[in-house]
Amino acid sequence: MILVTGATGFLGAELAKELILRGNSIRCTKRASSTIPQLLEPYAAKIEWADADLMDASALEAALEDVTQVYNCAAFVSLKQADKDPMIRTNVRGTANLVDLCNEKGIRLVHTSSVAAVGEAKPGELITENHHLDSSTETDGYAISKLESEMEVWRGVAEGLDAVIVNPTIIIGASAGTAGSGQIFETVRKGLKFYTRGTIGFVDVQDVAKCMIALMESDISGERYIINAENRNYKQLFEEIAGCMGVPAPTTLAKTWMMELAWRGASLFGFLTDKAPALDKISARAASVTREFDNNKIKKAIGFEFKPVSESIKEICTALKH
């Protein structure tokens, strides 16, 4: 039996679908209050759902009965400052529970981390799996939670756990709709006026799922892999999305002081409305930073070729138009 945690999320649902299309009957965890994603509705007969939060070790243990492989896609994600400590605590403790149970039961694990947990390279160099985030200077709660969750997996590996870690860049795909990375496309569609100088990596959600499955089915253990199709600067990305959407592309450079005002305004609005801010300080500053990722390790490990980002953009725009 294969278990997918976080299968009600963007990546988890896509991974579950890909496993089913390959002929697997799978078990997926969800919270009691979670809604089964529309993407998985056609495959209801192939999925056994288990109500199990990673923080509930006993429920998680029950969900792991007869399981030989686990894909961990579950995570608490929030931009709210008030959620920073609970997010770190939940993601780290939940991963620790899963690691302990997988180790105890001899279950192989593919753990989803993020490039938020990967460090910085020197100017002009690509970021690789050998770069590590400096926890003593990092202030982003999500990055800290991902880094410390990885540390729990590495602890498990040191204790004998059979595990691999993946660090995707920004995951895009039509099934995101207008949530998560889909907000980028929706914002451009509505008429984005500004662009930033930054560069970041992008990868299609289907490719992330395929890489995870290929790693699970390999004999690789105790390694981490950056999952990235292409590095794109935001100006180029916005222009391409705008072209696909048939709307004007942003033409004004958002300077540093503008971004500082933007995140402060978003923070105040979020405080007054008790909603997650559309932009936080970390995201605002990261939008002007160049972070380019090397994908050679994963390509060599499993012989993988990524879908071009332009192809993903066309698919997403077509889906949003309809």
From TrEMBL:
Domain of life: Bacteria
Limits of the NAD-dependent epimerase/dehydratase domain: 2-226
InterPro entries listed in its UniProt record: Epimerase_deHydtase, NAD(P)-bd_dom_sf, NAD(P)-dependent_oxidoreduct
Listed Pfam families: Epimerase
Protein name listed in UniProt: NAD-dependent epimerase/dehydratase family protein
Organism whose genome encodes this protein: Mucilaginibacter aquariorum
